[in-house]
Design brief:
binds 4'-phosphopantetheine, 5 strands, globular
């Protein structure tokens, strides 16, 4: 069984993430969405539990997709799944340097681990979780940026953050 691991901070999951996850689910036997619990990001908007709940809601229609949490190195997490491949989205040239560095460091830790990139759908090349957080902060329309099922939750969280 070939497994794709789609890693990320998912703060929150966007339609761009979901596009990559569902395309990977058509190519691989199984997709494990891996939520980094200790991602090197200063102030996450959502708790790990909230990220997992949102992800599980939006991947529910896809029987070969599951959601896991990882508290350690991604390259070590990948060892749990024999022959697993990391699958990530590539939005623009600006993603390349970071992703190239991540692949090299992951291979230092786990030399057998390969990373494959799916080019972002043109509808989502501008999209990132940070854009969604900022839009939510200002009470802007989130439709078309994140899955419909989680919009109300994101709006409520942003509203509580605004006090
Ligand atoms: O959505 P992001 O923030 O681009 O995802 C980055 C992520 C979470 C995939 C990456 O930071 C990660 O894998 N973190 C886990 C720790 C790790 O393995 N770091 C690489 C070696 S320093």
């Amino acid at each position: 069984m070939r497994t794709a691991i789609c890693p990320g901070s998912f703060d929150p999951v966007t339609l761009g993430h979901l596009n990559i996850i569902t395309r990977a689910a058509q190519i691989f036997d199984r997709v494990v969405v891996c939520v980094a619990a200790n991602a090197n990001k200063p102030t996450p908007m959502f708790t790990v539990e909230e990220k997992i709940d949102m992800l599980r809601t939006v991947v529910a229609p896809y029987p070969n997709v599951s959601v896991e949490v990882n508290t350690g190195l991604l390259a070590e997490f990948a060892r749990r799944y024999e022959g697993a491949v990391l699958v990530k989205g590539m939005r623009a040239a600006s993603d390349f340097d970071y992703e190239f560095q991540m692949d090299l460091i992951n291979k230092r830790i786990n030399p057998a681990l390969e990373t494959m990139f799916l080019t972002a759908d043109q509808r989502y090349t501008f999209l990132s979780s940070s854009i969604v957080r900022e839009m939510a902060h200002y009470g802007a329309e989130l439709s078309g940026l994140v899955p419909e099922e989680i919009i109300a939750f994101i709006e409520a969280k942003a509203k509580s953050g605004r006090g």
